[in-house]
């Protein structure tokens, strides 16, 4: 006669297996680094740029041409989507309130709705990727085994 595992033990084993799978996924992924810039759309009747401010600590990692996604307060980004942009210009000196000015060019074709001058939001600028320790160790071991 076959012996069955108690339900509680089966659930515990499944939970442990799921936790191990989740941790292994986290260990071997690349995580994007982002700089955030609260600001607003500008450029007249049809806004063509987003003007924001980045923190002093994020400023050194910004470069002209980096891609950005802009979440506008007027359009819930989870339902309507985001606006695409690129870093166009960076301020050369810090602002009186702290931080640095950043100007993004906006792709009006990616707009989640009508764009109006002054719409507020937050830009998330991709500044690079961070590799997890597990990924670095795994790639090093693979390189050494060759």
Q: Roughly what is the average pLDDT, rounded to an integer?
A: 79
The share of residues in helices is: 25-40%
CATH topology grouping of one domain: Elongation Factor Tu (Ef-tu), domain 3
N-end to C-end Cα span:
50 Å
Q: Please provide the count of β strands.
A: 6
| Residues in β-strands, percent | 35-45%
Q: Structural class, from secondary structure content? A: alpha+beta
What general outline do the C-alpha atoms trace?
A: extended
- Indicate the radius of gyration in whole angstroms: 23 Å
Strand arrangement, largest sheet? 1-2-5-4-3-6
Q: Under the CATH scheme, which class of one domain?
A: Mainly Beta
Order of helices and strands: HEEEHEEEH
**Tally of alpha and pi helices:** 3
Could you list the spans in which at least 5 consecutive residues all have pLDDT below 50?
Answer: none
Largest sheet: 6 strands, antiparallel, barrel
Word description of this protein:
The radius of gyration is 23 Å and the shape is extended. The protein starts with 6 loop residues before the first helix and ends with a helix. Strand 1 and strand 2 form a beta hairpin. Helix content is 25%, strand content 36%. It has a domain of 98 residues: Elongation Factor Tu (Ef-tu), domain 3 (Beta Barrel). By secondary structure, it is of the alpha+beta class. Strands 1-2-5-4-3-6 form a 6-stranded antiparallel β-barrel. The protein is built from 3 helices and 6 strands, in the order αβββαβββα. 17% of the residues are buried.
């Amino acid at each position: 006669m076959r012996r069955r595992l108690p339900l509680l033990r089966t659930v515990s084993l499944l939970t442990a297996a799921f936790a191990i799978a989740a941790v292994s996924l986290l260990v071997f992924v690349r995580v994007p680094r982002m700089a955030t810039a609260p600001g607003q759309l500008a450029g007249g009747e049809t806004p063509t740029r987003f003007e924001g401010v980045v923190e002093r600590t994020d400023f050194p990692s910004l470069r002209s041409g980096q891609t950005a996604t802009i979440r506008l307060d007027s359009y819930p980004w989870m339902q309507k989507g985001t606006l695409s942009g690129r870093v166009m210009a960076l301020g050369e000196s810090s602002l009186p309130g702290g931080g640095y000015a950043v100007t993004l060019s906006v792709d009006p074709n990616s707009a989640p709705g009508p764009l109006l001058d002054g719409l507020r939001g937050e830009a998330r600028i991709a500044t690079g990727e961070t590799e997890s320790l597990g990924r670095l160790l795994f790639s090093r071991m693979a390189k050494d085994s060759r």
